[in-house]
Amino acid sequence: MHVHRFERLWLVGALTLIVLFIGTVTYGAVGAGYGMVDDTGGEVDPTNTTESENFRSPGVYNGSESDHYDVYIEAKQFLFVPGTSDPVRVPANSTVTFHVTSTDVMHGFEVVGTNINTMAVPGQVATVTVEFDEPDEYGLVCNEYCGNGHHDMEGSLEVVPPAQFNESGVN
Ligand code: CUA
């Protein structure tokens, strides 16, 4: 069967595009470090009162290693605790695991300008681990519609020089 030269060109072009599209979708799902909330994120057990085994009081905690911190954040209509009235403060050159849950409806937790972006689901804990190399300031926004104050639901994250962080201590 004879296939015209231009027809062959279009066929090859179209197949190449399909392969590229599948490649970008696969990269986005697997390679870029995005994750979905699932069972491994854990659920909040309201009957469990030992904080180390469950969702701790919101705040910043020392993690398993010296340069690792755990940040527990509650999202609620229409605040992040901590984050909205007090900024979340973590030191630079550290690894930070965010544990995010909601106490009422579905919220979003996005650190603007980074790829930290998760849903905050009532009764579930979403965990995201990131490294902060440089001191910087980031905004926190809710990106799931959660009610009439949704557009005002925001906060801030301060990545401060380690010396400055040690002065204030872990709260
Ligand atoms: Cu919380 Cu939108």
Secondary structure class reads alpha+beta
The CATH homologous superfamily of the largest domain: Cupredoxins -  blue copper proteins
Tell me, briefly, the overall form: elongated
The tally of strands reads 10
**What ranges have pLDDT less than 50 throughout 5 or more consecutive residues?**
none
**Radius of gyration from the CA trace?**
21 Å
What does this structure look like?
There is one protein chain. With 171 residues, this protein is of the alpha+beta class. The chain has two domains: 1-36; 42-168, Cupredoxins -  blue copper proteins (Immunoglobulin-like), CATH 2.60.40. 20% of the residues lie in helices and 34% in strands. The chain is built from two helices and ten strands, in the order αββββββββββα. It has helices at 5-31, 162-168, and strands at residues 59-62, 68-76, 79-81, 88-91, 94-102, 107-111, 117-120, 126-132, 136-141, 154-160. The strands form two sheets. Strands 1, 2, 3, 5 and 8 form a five-stranded mixed β-sheet that branches. Strands 4-10-9-6-7 form a five-stranded mixed β-sheet, with helices on one face. A hairpin with a 5-residue loop joins β1 and β2. The model has no long low-confidence stretch (mean pLDDT 83). The structure holds dinuclear copper ion.
